[in-house]
């Protein structure tokens, strides 16, 4: 099991191609919002979810995807799904 | 009062060249872009050759961001965007800032967009994997996809649309853009069209037995418009784009003016009088040409060059007869006539715009490109017009008026009259 910092590091590599605000990306915290801070196009949240599924071999259901709007919530969801495995 | 409309930007992605200056060289040399296609051979096509523009990864990275290239699998989008952006830059126009450019619009047509992406999606959907399609299937496969990509990249705030009229699409797009400027609804319109390449686009034509199958070992000789040995059209792909602009706007910007659009006409033969889903009603073809001449306000004797549809099927003599009848000119009095398809194949929905770019280059640079592979002219054609009216080599010559026409499935026609710009 990855630590929280390791999870965030993996998540950052997944999110990187979709980021439109590099400065905000350099200062990512758990509170960082994908759309408002990183200026990610909302349509790309779907692609991020798919990439996360592949990287962690988990499935993110629709309800979880709707909640996955910040780095922190993404980490929570990944942790939870990994625990359920 | 009707606005005068001029062409101030050109962009092209063709099987024999990418970019306007290289394309101009290629068409003057008579360079063929038709090559053997191993995938068609593997798939047991009768016709195993085609025209595919030599787009490299480097070119893609020049026009698209990494994010846009992520999961991009639509050759039509790539061709359309590269040609569209080239035309825009060639016109010396800039990208809009925060506020859209309300005076600039786009009409970028296609027959079918992103067929490879669509195939990918169909497989996933059928495997119950719809949730894994990703976010870009729609934008890569919607008919207006290229307009949408270009609209965002350039910040255009006027009409953004896509037309579709089979092989007449590109010429029709140009005339739609022209109409929008003539009426003052827009100052500038990016007009163009594209076609995907590959087995899923071309297969239907192979099944119809309208593609040549005797030239798989000699692809460059396969596309033979006007020839006695023409045996079908060679499938092609790519995109062409032209910036149309009101004369006022072009003069205000001090833009290079490549040509003026004098007018044109689109119509349909109603699939009557010999016309069908796949064959043109000859009366409608003649009417389309005559109406175009009439709207342009020229005399038939003014036409120097006909940039024909001329696909290299047995219908070529019928097309020439249509021009002879419509213009009432024949023998040595007939204008020069050539077919770009001899070099690039039939680029389907992209044909009209790629060929229009070629016609504009002829006017601007003073040449008539050769119609290659026509060394054995069809006897029915030489019975109507003088053989020297079909250039086998490039002719260097100042020309004033080109009539450009395309005809498509559904019995649809489009003809535009272009002229060298004279203030």
From TrEMBL, chain A:
Residues 5-82 form the Carrier domain. It comes from the Bacteria. This is Acyl carrier protein. It comes from Spirosoma validum.
From TrEMBL, chain B:
SMART domains: PKS_KS (SM00825). GO terms for biological process: fatty acid biosynthetic process. InterPro entries: Beta-ketoacyl_synthase (IPR000794), Ketoacyl_synth_C (IPR014031), Ketoacyl_synth_N (IPR014030), PKS_Beta-ketoAc_synthase_dom (IPR020841), Thiolase-like (IPR016039). GO terms for cellular component: cytosol. Keywords: Acyltransferase, Cytoplasm, Transferase. Its EC number is 2.3.1.41. It is found in: Cytoplasm. Gene3D superfamilies: 3.40.47.10. It catalyses: (3Z)-decenoyl-[ACP] + malonyl-[ACP] + H(+) = 3-oxo-(5Z)-dodecenoyl-[ACP] + holo-[ACP] + CO2; a fatty acyl-[ACP] + malonyl-[ACP] + H(+) = a 3-oxoacyl-[ACP] + holo-[ACP] + CO2. GO terms for molecular function: 3-oxoacyl-[acyl-carrier-protein] synthase activity. Residues 2-420 form the Ketosynthase family 3 (KS3) domain. Homodimer. Belongs to the thiolase-like superfamily. Beta-ketoacyl-ACP synthases family. This is 3-oxoacyl-[acyl-carrier-protein] synthase 1. The lineage of its organism: Bacteria, Pseudomonadati, Bacteroidota, Cytophagia, Cytophagales.
């Amino acid at each position: 099991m990855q630590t929280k910092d390791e999870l965030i590091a993996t998540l950052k590599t997944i999110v990187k191609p979709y980021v439109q605000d590099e400065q905000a990306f350099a200062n990512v915290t758990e509170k960082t919002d994908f759309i408002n801070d990183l200026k990610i196009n909302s349509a790309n949240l779907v692609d991020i979810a798919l990439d996360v599924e592949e990287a962690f071999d988990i499935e993110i259901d629709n309800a979880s995807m709707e909640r996955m709007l910040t780095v922190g919530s993404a980490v929570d969801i990944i942790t939870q799904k990994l625990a359920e495995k | 009062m009707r606005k005068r409309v001029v062409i101030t930007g050109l962009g092209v992605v063709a099987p024999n060249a990418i970019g306007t200056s290289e394309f101009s060289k290629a068409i003057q040399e008579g360079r063929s872009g038709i090559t053997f296609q191993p995938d068609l051979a593997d798939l047991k096509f009768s016709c195993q050759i085609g025209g595919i523009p030599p787009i490299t990864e480097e070119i893609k990275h020049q026009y698209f961001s990494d994010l846009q290239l992520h999961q991009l699998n639509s050759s039509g989008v790539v061709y359309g965007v590269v040609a569209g952006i080239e035309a825009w830059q060639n016109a010396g126009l800039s990208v809009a800032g925060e506020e859209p450019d309300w005076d600039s619009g786009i009409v970028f047509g296609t027959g079918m967009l992103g067929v490879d992406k669509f195939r990918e999606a169909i497989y996933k959907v059928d495997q119950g994997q719809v949730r894994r399609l990703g976010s870009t299937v729609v934008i890569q496969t919607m008919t207006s996809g290229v307009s949408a990509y270009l609209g965002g990249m350039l910040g255009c705030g006027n009409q953004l649309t896509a037309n579709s009229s089979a092989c007449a699409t590109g010429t029709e797009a140009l005339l739609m853009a022209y109409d929008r400027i003539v009426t003052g609804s827009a100052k500038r319109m990016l007009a163009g069209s594209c076609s995907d390449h590959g087995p899923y686009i071309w297969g239907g034509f192979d099944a119809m037995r309208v593609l040549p199958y005797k030239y798989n070992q000699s692809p460059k000789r396969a596309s033979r418009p006007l020839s006695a040995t023409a045996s079908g059209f060679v499938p092609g792909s790519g995109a062409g784009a032209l910036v149309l602009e009101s004369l006022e706007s072009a003069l205000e910007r001090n833009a290079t003016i490549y040509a003026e659009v004098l007018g044109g006409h689109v119509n349909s033969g109603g699939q009557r009088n010999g016309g069908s889903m796949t064959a043109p009603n000859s009366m409608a073809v003649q009417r389309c040409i005559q109406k175009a001449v009439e709207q342009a306000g020229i005399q038939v004797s003014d036409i120097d060059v006909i940039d024909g549809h001329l696909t290299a099927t047995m219908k070529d003599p019928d097309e020439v007869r249509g021009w002879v009848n419509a213009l009432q000119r024949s023998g040595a009095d007939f204008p020069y006539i050539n077919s770009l398809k001899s070099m690039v194949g039939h680029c389907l929905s992209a044909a009209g715009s790629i060929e229009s770019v070629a016609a504009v280059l002829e006017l601007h640079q003073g040449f008539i490109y050769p119609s290659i592979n026509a060394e054995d002219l069809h006897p029915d054609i030489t019975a109507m017009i003088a053989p020297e009216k079909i250039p086998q080599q490039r002719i260097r010559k100042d020309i004033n008026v080109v009539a450009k026409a395309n005809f498509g499935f559904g019995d649809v026609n489009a003809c535009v009259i272009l002229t060298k710009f004279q203030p």
